[in-house]
Amino acid sequence: MKIKDAKVFVCSPGRNFVTLKIYTDEGIYGLGDCTLNGRELAVASYLTDHLIPCLIGRDPFQTEDIWQYLYRGAYWRKGPVTMSAIAAVDMALWDIKGKALNTPLYNLLGGKSRTGVMVYGHANGRDIPETVDEVGKFIEMGYLAVRAQSGVPGLPGTYGVSKDKMFYEPAERGPENVWCSEKYLLQAPKLFEALRLRYGDDVHLLHDAHHRLTPIQAARLGKDLEPFHLFWLEDAVTAELQEGFRLIRQHTTTPLAVGEIFDTVWDANLLITEQLIDYLRMTVVRGGGITPLKKIAAFAEMYHVQTGCHGATDLSPVTMGAALHFDISVSNFGIQEYMRHAKETDEVFPHAYFFKDSYLHPGEKPGHGVEYDEKLAAKFPYERAYLPVNRKLDGTMWNW
Ligand code: EZ4
Ligand code: CO
């Protein structure tokens, strides 16, 4: 079998997505996601102008060699544009393999290690009472784990809080966001105290600090949250300085998750080998595909680090499908983030995965089981988009 052609599609059914389709001379094709929120066209160009010409004529089964060719062969390594583009190629090739062998992708990754994939939903509210009610809706739907984010008194809005509830865009760009760590640190523990009072100890509760704290502030938050035993505290600080996590770790037993923006294992090398985190958030699209993610999971397993794939709505159903096959097969799976896509998105990307009896299931279609309706997608042209920005109360630029 040979790769005959490949095309990049950009569409916006509710939000932007970039999709790669690789065609073979035997009529089988594969799909990959390379959506990079706010920088979509850079990845599309990297693929069309640089990677696709290198793929024609190659054997699509050679996922390892093609990955090395695109990564090592470029000389220039890493970076979200490069790694998202390589990821799309890798996802599409694994999809082709599954279809050619007529088996779901998970069977090529070691087979099922569990019956279903535990996911967490996103609950948000303007204040604590509203957030507590929203968490209840997910528990009623059968979710075993829920992430809770609440508005902070004195701040007009904050990350993860929207007027929309079940379906919302976490990276909606409005006026510039305003931030104050001191106000946030006073309120966050009260939210989780209220949640435990209302729902008891069984449901897993998660929280995302979205890169806004310093290590010592994160240590304080982790300590304050200990009585409410979170499943994880995510992205408490930015993680360019991996050593910063030593400081957090020595002060708190709250489990730590990080890595949704990491693009290779080198972003997490120290975090893993020093056991400074509990969950690694890298997912298929940002981490360069299934090929490297399998290796990273095996490496993390040796250090008691579990997986916790990023799964916000800016990752297309193609990434979600591929991630679910990965999740169900790796032995050190932890949890999978699951924000439901808008109806238009699901219609453009018909998929085999489904939520049933508290778990997500990858489905039994060959490959990753996600399709792309090109005709329908053409009705939703690309719309320029940017992620929000964040400033402190005095106007200083801060992390969003
Ligand atoms: O802000 O995917 O845990 N989930 C997140 C997401 C990210 C978006 C950025 O594009 O932090 O909501
Ligand atoms: Co996050």
CATH class of the largest domain: Alpha Beta
SS class: alpha/beta
- Helix amount, in percent? 25-40%
Please state the CA-atom Rg, rounded to the nearest Å: 20 Å
The count of DSSP E runs of length 2 or more, i.e. the number of strands, is 16
Per-chain topology:
Elements: E1 3-11, E2 17-24, E3 29-33, H1 40-55, H2 63-71, H3 80-101, E4 117-125, H4 128-140, E5 145-150, E6 177-179, H5 181-199, E7 204-208, H6 215-225, E8 232-234, H7 244-249, E9 256-258, H8 269-273, E10 279-280, H9 290-301, E11 306-309, H10 317-329, E12 333-337, H11 343-348, E13 354-356, E14 359-361, H12 374-377, E15 390-392, E16 397-398
Parallel strand pairs: 4-5, 4-12, 5-7, 6-15, 7-8, 8-9, 9-10, 10-11, 11-12
Antiparallel strand pairs: 1-2, 2-3, 4-14, 13-14, 15-16
Residues 37, 170-171, 208, 210, 260, 312, 314, 337, 387 line the site of (2S,3R,4R)-2,3,4,5-tetrahydroxy-N-oxo-pentanamide.
Protein model, in words:
This protein has 400 residues and is of the alpha/beta class. It folds into two domains: 3-104, Enolase-like, N-terminal domain (Enolase-like, domain 1), CATH 3.30.390; 108-365, TIM Barrel, CATH 3.20.20. 34% of the residues lie in helices and 18% in strands. The longest helix is centred in the N-terminal third of the chain and has 22 residues, at 80-101. Cobalt (II) ion is lined by residues 208, 210, 234-235, 260.
